[in-house]
Amino acid sequence: MKNDTGFLEISDDDIKIAFKEVKTYMDISLEDFKEIYIHALNHARTRLLNITVDKVMTKNVMSITKKSSVSEAIHLLSESKVPCLPVVDDENTVIGIITRKDIIVAAGVAKNNTFKDVIRYIIGVPTPHKNVISAKMAKDIMTSPAITVPLGSDIKDAANKLLEMRINNLPVVSNDNKLAGIISTSDIVNSIGSSRRI
Amino acid sequence: MKEYFKKMRGGGESPPGVGFSEIVWSGIGSFAGIAACGYLSARYFTPLDLTLFIGSFGASAVLIYAAIKSPLAQPRNLIGGHVLSGLVGVTCYKFFGHDIMLASALAVSLAIMVMLATKTLHPPGGATALIAVIGGKAIYNLGYLYAIIPAGLGAAVLLVIALLVNNLSKNRKYPEYWF
């Protein structure tokens, strides 16, 4: 059984069986035990989701400057395993982000492809959206402003943002908006998974 | 008002019972504990016009031989509860002994409050406090010694037997903690 928070919920039968397994007389009623158990479980839940993003994020992430060339961005994204590249200015302030999707868009594919566009692409007819090939610099193709999460926030906030925006990676920024790392959905899943040794 | 009476319905379920071995070990422990206490009392304390035996030990036996995991049954509660309640009981008799009813009610209620405040709640302590007030001449003559002999020392004898007997069974462990 799972409750609305997704945590395993204990059943009355589970408790009764456990009471029998302990063998000695327990000086507590089943109801009281369950109440204490649920309180404790809620504390555990809060503790697991109150981990701050800096504990689980990837530090030393790759980034590019706004004046880097588009080909450099393409090269980095294709040669390394990073899923996205934060774009920073000279002070390491995050001003945007380039994902693989941005590259595809820059290559001339519209953000919202119609079925017709796909057919056109397959049969070799040029799509009508070819206005961005001329982009030279990273800042011309990046998504800006980048969606970021502050360093001190907890992973619950980060998870909400990732879900809400339907993305998998978030640049983590310090107070003055400087790049500090990247947190991904898998970072969060790993952290909850490893701290749940119950 | 409806809420108030609704609470009296209970609604919970009683916990499962214990196995046969638990019943036997509880019997063995309490038999040994009370027997030891009674023997020592008759052999060494009665000749000195003292006793090691008060009624509240029957109640203590239930806790420390049958409900051994209970916080109420741990050494801190057993010894602390009897000694503190003994002190409270004797004090109440000394100050309010002319009115036994008042002295009794005060002894038990104050003993409960003192035990709660000192994390030594032990239900038989209430009886120990009451006996100090209604126990008759032999008890009155002991004065504050009552809190040590029989209350404290008798509880200590029960404790020693509990340590020896409760740990013989592989399913049992006593105490959970000392203080």
Record keyword descriptors for this entry.
A: 198 residues; alpha/beta; 9 helices; 6 strands; 43% helix; 13% strand; B: mainly alpha; 8 helices; 68% helix; flat
Return the CATH class of the largest domain in chain A.
Answer: Alpha Beta
- Most strands sheet of chain B: none
What is the residue-averaged pLDDT of chain A?
A: 81
Secondary-structure element pattern of chain B, one letter each: HHHHHHHH
- What would the principal axes of the Cα set say about the shape of chain A? elongated
Question: In percent terms, what proportion of residues of chain A is strand?
Answer: 5-15%
End-to-end CA span of chain B: 42 Å
What name does the CATH topology of the largest domain in chain A carry? CBS-domain
Percent of residues in helices of chain B comes to 55-70%
Low-confidence stretches of chain A: none
The helix tally of chain A amounts to: 9
What is the radius of gyration of chain A computed over CA atoms, rounded to a whole number of angstroms?
Answer: 24 Å
Order of helices and strands of chain A: HHHEHEEHHHEHEEH
Indicate the radius of gyration of chain B in whole angstroms. Answer: 18 Å
The CATH architecture category of the largest domain in chain A equals Roll
Number of domains of chain B: 1
Structural summary, described in words:
The complex is a heterodimer of chains A (198) and B (179). Chain A is α/β, with parallel strands linked by helices and 198 residues long. Helix content of chain A is 43%, strand content 13%. A 3-stranded mixed sheet of chain A has the order 1-2-3. The radius of gyration of chain A is 24 Å and the shape is elongated. The model of chain A has no long low-confidence stretch (mean pLDDT 81). Chain B is an all-alpha fold and 179 residues long. Chain B is built from 8 helices and no strands. Chain B starts with a helix and ends in a 13-residue tail after the last helix. At the A-B interface, α1 of A face α2 of B.
